[in-house]
Amino acid sequence: QQQVKQSPQSLIVQKGGIPIINCAYENTAFDYFPWYQQFPGKGPALLIAIRPDVSEKKEGRFTISFNKSAKQFSLHIMDSQPGDSATYFCAAINNAGNMLTFGGGTRLMVKP
Amino acid sequence: ETGVTQSPTHLIKTRGQQVTLRCSSQSGHNTVSWYQQALGQGPQFIFQYYREEENGRGNFPPRFSGLQFPNYSSELNVNALELDDSALYLCASSLKTGGPYNEQFFGPGTRLTVL
Asked: Is B30 at the interface with chain A, CB within 8 A?
């Protein structure tokens, strides 16, 4: 059962472009939404996270937009660089705080 | 500060065998979670251990079992291996403080291949 749906599966942008990755969730018990970045051969690393009482959060070149009523959230990467080429996962966790539910992942390639 | 480490990095087993994967938590962390990541998919939660007790379990059969030791390191055991168990197994440690969410830090994973 996929409780967090992520799109697109893959994305190619030119350097400086703004890739956008979208996620939708079903479980209203989710109350924390992190994004992870994973490079080949590495484990996922936390990039940025948001709570549903906030509509937008920015950290450096990364921005999360959150729409609680639509149960959707998205990641924008400003001024993307070739070093941002990685797989990105959205995730959600409930207030028990023990189980991360991940989306299917988006493989991003930023061309020089 | 030492990050999360896992061993071995790669492992090849045959169907029906048993396997043990190991994880050392990041220094100061008291909670360990295990995830299975099939090729091209997102990680799926197997279970979490806190203070040597299971603290939540995902949709995995009982042949997936675990342990947490007093030093907070952990083992994942899988019995009667099946071909579909081939995956990257990720361990994540965190410090449970009583707050609503404690960031989980992931290790590099163990790549298990079942033939």
From this structure: no
Query: CB–CB of B108 and A42 under 8 A?
Result: yes
Rounded Cα–Cα distance for residues B14 and B34 (Å):
22
DSSP H/E element including B58: none
Find the residue in A nearest to B57 (Cα).
A99
Per-residue pLDDT at A95 exceeds 90: no
How many contacts (CB atoms, under 8 Å) link A and B? Answer: 62
Give the pLDDT band (50/70/90) at residue A98: confident
Non-local (6+) Cβ contacts of B56 within 8 A are A96, A98, A99, B45, B47, B48
Tell whether A54 is within 8 A of chain B (Cβ): no
User: Residue length, chain B?
Assistant: 115
Mean pLDDT for A43-64 is: 94
pLDDT band, residue B25 (cuts 50/70/90)? very high
d(Cα A101, Cα A91) in Å, to the nearest integer? 5
Handedness of CA A104, A108, B2, B6 (dihedral sign): positive
Strand order in the sheet with B64-68: B5-7, B19-24, B74-78, B64-68
Q: How far apart are CA A110 and CA A112, in angstroms?
A: 7
